[in-house]
Specification:
three-stranded antiparallel β-sheet, four-stranded antiparallel β-sheet, globular, 107 residues, alpha+beta
Amino acid sequence: MTVITTPKKPAESAGVAACWRACFHHWPANIPQRGVLVTAFDEQIPFGSFMVSEELLFIERRNPDTLGTRSVIVPYSQIAAVKIVDPLEPREFQSFGFHSVGAKASG
């Protein structure tokens, strides 16, 4: 699970928003477009698909919430984390830009 807390400074918030924008705009084809979006106001929203714009993320729930809502539009700056629900091998996250790091040699 990826967790990023929303920073308090506007410049940092813009940087976090840019990271999330890039993440969703370049979502790898080998990873299903579903998971759980965690917002800065601590709401967890399961989603089954999404669409992107420059400033907003449109997500579609797989099932409606208690109010019958199926779609949610969230600014990238309000995303705190994305939980991936599908079992994936760690190497599949390389397409997101992640890489392994070796243990540092003691000396």
